[in-house]
Amino acid sequence: MSKQPYDIAIIGGGVIGAAIAQRLAKYQLSLVLIEKEEDVAMGTSKANSGIIHQGYFTTKGSLKESLSLRSNKLFDEVCPQLDVEFKRIGAIFCATNEKELKTLEGEFKESRERNVAVELVQDRDRIQEIEPQLNDQVIAVLHFPNAGIITPWELTIAMVEHSIINGLKLHLGFEVAYIKREKQIFQINSVKGQKIEAKTIINAAGVYSDSIAKMIGDDSFNIIPRRGEYIMFDKNSLQLNKIIFPTPNVVSKGIVVAPTMHNNFFVGPNANEIDSKEGINTTTQGLNEILQGGLKLVKKLPIRKHITNFAGIRASTITHDFIIGVSKLSQFVNVAGIDSPGLTSSLGIAEYVEKILQNDCGYKFIEKRNYIPTRKNQIRYAQLSESELAEKIKENPQWGNMICRCELVTEAEIVEACHGLIPITNTDMIKRRLRPGMGRCQGGFCLPKVMKIISRERGVIYEQVTKTGRDSHIVFKRTKNLCSEVFQGDQL
Ligand SMILES: Cc1cc2nc3c(=O)[nH]c(=O)nc-3n(C[C@H](O)[C@H](O)[C@H](O)COP(=O)(O)OP(=O)(O)OC[C@H]3O[C@@H](n4cnc5c(N)ncnc54)[C@H](O)[C@@H]3O)c2cc1C
């Protein structure tokens, strides 16, 4: 345990808290990241479109505009450092009528003023060349070649791991219940009665950032949860070159058809205000809305190839901009209202927060002498040549035991992940790191095997291995135990 009080405590292990931790971990200070769940990237950072935008359709002079533009560029530097895959495949906004074309022309002009690479295409052949899957009704596209895709939870996990390598203390399962301040030290208390002390707090609690701010008497903003639903399709079921947007409306950038880093593709999200910050269920109405939206953009959607649905919640506010700055209490920094493009802006936000800490909180950062600038991902079966694989199997036969056939994941990889920097306690943690359960069968075949490996490697009773932590039990009881209890030893 690091000596308390910590210099800085970050509340929230989403992509924003992770990016801030990663940025600050290179300096000589004690840093703690506090997260209520059993893993990082369990909130909005695990359920979004994974698009790295290019500053388009943001309000002039807003933080969203400046931070997303700055951040987009930082991905080329940070992703190789973290060993995270990122592809600049480009995004297109489509117009299907003259009114939409006018909107795209306006955005074209604004993007040029922002010095962003952009192209307005109206030539039919060129439109088809850019994206052959486009619907014939598309009359023009606004093409942003530097937009990209990333797997958001992979980025978040990588940033936290890199921070841990450089001395970050990660507190999982610590749900902040209330905060007190005495003699310039914050005491952060969890619902279970644990305490963490820190001189400075960074509030990056996503949809709950308003509740955290209220704990110190700051009620200057409220988060309005806005749900976005998705339909995910099987690998290689539609070959897409680009991220395809409609012409945006005032509420959101609209329903997208886009590829993922792992060759799936998705349609979504819609944007609906809801009452609950936990409302990540999908609805029949919402899924229909998404399909209709997708069909306006592409010629066909292979409905039978859909593999799952999910939803994420935007932490929106009435200002429609990010809220980043020192709160009414000194040394308490809000990083709130981080709705889209928050993933894109994460690296820029971290840089901006670093400046706030220097300018408004009195920090003078000195780089650690033993700072480790890179983090390596674990070796994957799919990356190995036949001879490399044969060598691996000779050393460790677990490399030859295929656990997930959809995503090609072996026992050796799962065992290694179990003993990684963040302690594995549930099956979704393995799913987010290695992808068993993300494929066509959605874990139908591999889930019991993954549970067995976690149980063995982490010393957890099989029945107590959960899906996402807390009470998300997968197995209630073994049938033979249940039968003997029900029939009290009678022969079946
Ligand atoms: C449908 C949808 C699509 C999107 N698409 C994109 C996109 O393509 N590109 C883009 O740039 N952005 C996109 N975004 C926005 C982006 O996903 C978010 O801006 C980003 O994930 C926000 O990260 P965060 O760290 O602020 O929040 P979160 O990821 O929600 O992290 C906050 C963390 O705080 C923790 N926490 C909360 N309360 C407490 C407490 N009391 N104690 C301890 N921990 C607590 C939570 O468990 C959570 O892990 C999208 C968002 C949605 C919903």
Largest sheet: 8 strands, mixed
- Output the CATH topology of the largest domain: FAD/NAD(P)-binding domain
The secondary-structure class comes to: alpha+beta
Shape: globular
Query: Which architecture of the largest domain per CATH?
Result: 3-Layer(bba) Sandwich
Task: State the separation between the terminal residues, measured CA to CA.
Answer: 53 Å
* CATH superfamily placement of the largest domain: FAD/NAD(P)-binding domain
Helix content: 25-40%
Uncertain runs are none
How many β-strand stretches? 22
Q: Could you tell me the radius of gyration in angstroms?
A: 24 Å
Mean pLDDT: 95
Report the portion of residues in β strands. 15-25%
Which helices and strands occur, and which strands form pairs?
Blueprint: E1 6-11, H1 15-24, E2 31-34, E3 51-52, H2 63-82, E4 86-87, E5 91-95, H3 98-113, E6 119-121, H4 124-130, E7 140-144, E8 148-150, H5 152-165, E9 169-171, E10 176-182, E11 185-190, E12 195-203, H6 209-214, E13 224-233, E14 243-245, E15 256-259, E16 265-268, E17 272-273, H7 284-295, E18 306-316, E19 323-326, E20 332-336, H8 342-360, H9 386-395, E21 402-404, E22 409-410, H10 411-418, H11 427-434, H12 447-458, H13 479-486
Parallel strand pairs: 1-2, 1-12, 2-9, 5-14, 12-20
Antiparallel strand pairs: 3-8, 4-8, 5-7, 6-7, 10-11, 11-12, 13-16, 13-17, 13-18, 15-16, 19-20, 21-22
Helix pairs in contact: 1-5, 1-8, 2-8, 10-12
